[in-house]
Design goal:
The structure holds 2 protein chains of 2 kinds.
Chain A lengths: L4 E3 L2 E4 L5 E6 L6 E8 L3 E9 L2 E4 L8 E7 L2 E6 L8 E8 L9 E2 L3 E5 L1
Chain B lengths: L2 E3 L4 E5 L4 E3 L2 E3 L5 E7 L5 E7 L5 E3 L5 E5 L4 E6 L8 E9 L5 E4 L3 E6 L1
Parallel strand pairs in B: 2-12
Antiparallel strand pairs in B: 1-4, 3-9, 5-6, 5-10, 7-8, 8-9, 10-11, 10-12
């Protein structure tokens, strides 16, 4: 199993540009989570999906952020327009329903820098 | 709402010495509890978890943790630290359906002196 795959690993963009982060969860996992990690705020849950349906997006900071999961094997997190304060590491994680015992499987993250 | 507190932001320990990382949680029901480790530039890796049963749980890399309901704690321990244990450690509590919604503590960064 290749694990949770995120792309790109690093992204540098200019303020005002649109940024799209991508995630491929582990096959068979029906929960998908997007987290943001910053020095100031630590790990924050942005949104999570169950069976491709957004369940809780209360952590999405602003309307500039949106996330989709068009199918069980792909999710995107989009920021439009991007701002310097969006600079962070964004993690995607997946989990199998009923197996919280195993926690999440995290991807390696996307380090976003907005200049 | 659930919350997790890790009181120690940084801990420095000598190689071969013992390590204990503190974690206190707040949750209204029986919690699912986890410890994750993050090496520099990497994602988070699950060390161990607790959901019921024996309150002392064993994990990977020689780590163990003890659940104490009366103290709302889930402290992580390792008897003898190796230089490769230098990393950041996160405690998390699971809520929601099957504990799938995790809330993380702020993390404890461990430095290992030779």
């Amino acid at each position: 199993d290749a694990g949770v795959i995120q792309s790109p690993r690093h992204e540098v963009t200019e303020m005002g540009q649109e940024v799209t982060l991508r995630c491929k969860p582990i096959s068979g996992h029906d929960y998908l989570f997007w987290y943001r990690q910053t020095m100031m705020r630590g790990l924050e849950l942005l949104i999570y999906f169950n069976n491709n349906v957004p369940i809780d997006d209360s952590g999405m900071p602003e309307d500039r952020f949106s996330a989709k999961m068009p199918n069980a094997s792909f999710s995107t997190l989009k920021i439009q327009p991007s701002e310097p304060r969006d600079s962070a590491v964004y993690f995607c994680a997946s989990s199998s329903s009923g197996t919280a015992l195993y926690g999440y499987t995290f991807g390696s993250g996307t380090r976003l820098t907005v200049v | 709402a659930q919350s997790v507190t890790q009181p120690d932001i940084h801990i420095t320990v000598s190689e071969g010495a013992s390590l204990e990382l503190r974690c206190n949680y707040s949750y209204g029901a029986t919690p699912y509890l986890f410890w994750y480790v993050q090496s520099p530039g990497q994602g988070l890796q699950l060390l161990l978890k607790y959901f019921s049963g024996d309150t002392l749980v064993q994990g990977i890399k020689g780590f163990e943790a003890e659940f104490k309901r009366s103290q709302s704690s889930f402290n992580l321990r390792k008897p003898s630290v190796h230089w490769s244990d230098a990393a950041e450690y996160f405690c998390a509590v699971g809520a929601g359906a099957a504990g799938n919604k995790l809330t993380f503590g702020g993390g404890t960064r461990v430095l290992v002196k030779p």
